[in-house]
């Protein structure tokens, strides 16, 4: 999926809190090119227009939540093969199961370690 071997993988970070994107940018920009979407709806249009190598998707967002966004991404031909890592403060087994049932490739519970997040991302990209 990557356009060039010497370019870093592109991550689309979807979170209604811009501060979370800023934190991820600091933590991950050495390994990835990051872009931002503030909602599930903007994630869908961005992923179709400029497909990333993976999507970091927050679960708890107003409007279209992460589960619905994930289902829509996985049911859209242009985006169905993009790996999705769900990121959430919801840590119960039921919440994680709901993420996998929606189609995510990995589920990371907040607060997370940057090393742990990198490992999850690298397993799906």
TrEMBL record:
- InterPro entries, alphabetized: Bact_response_regulator (IPR050595), CheY-like_superfamily (IPR011006), Sig_transdc_resp-reg_receiver (IPR001789)
Keywords on record: Phosphoprotein
Q: Any keyword Isomerase? A: no
Residues where 4-aspartylphosphate occurs?
58
Domain (Response regulatory) ranges: 10-125
Q: Which Pfam families match?
A: Response_reg
What highest taxon heads this organism's lineage?
Answer: Bacteria
| Protein name (Swiss-Prot/TrEMBL) | Response regulator
């Amino acid at each position: 999926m990557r356009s060039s071997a010497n370019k870093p993988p592109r991550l689309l970070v979807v979170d209604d809190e811009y501060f979370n994107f800023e934190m991820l940018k600091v933590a991950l920009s050495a390994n990835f090119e990051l872009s931002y979407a503030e909602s599930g709806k903007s994630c869908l249009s961005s992923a179709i227009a400029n497909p990333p190598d993976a999507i970091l998707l927050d679960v708890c967002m107003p409007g279209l939540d992460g589960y619905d966004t994930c289902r829509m991404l996985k049911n859209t031909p242009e985006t169905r093969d993009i790996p999705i890592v769900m990121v959430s403060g919801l840590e119960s087994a039921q919440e994680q199961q709901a993420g996998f049932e929606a189609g995510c490739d990995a589920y990371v519970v907040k607060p997370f370690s940057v090393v742990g997040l990198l490992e999850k991302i690298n397993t799906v990209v």
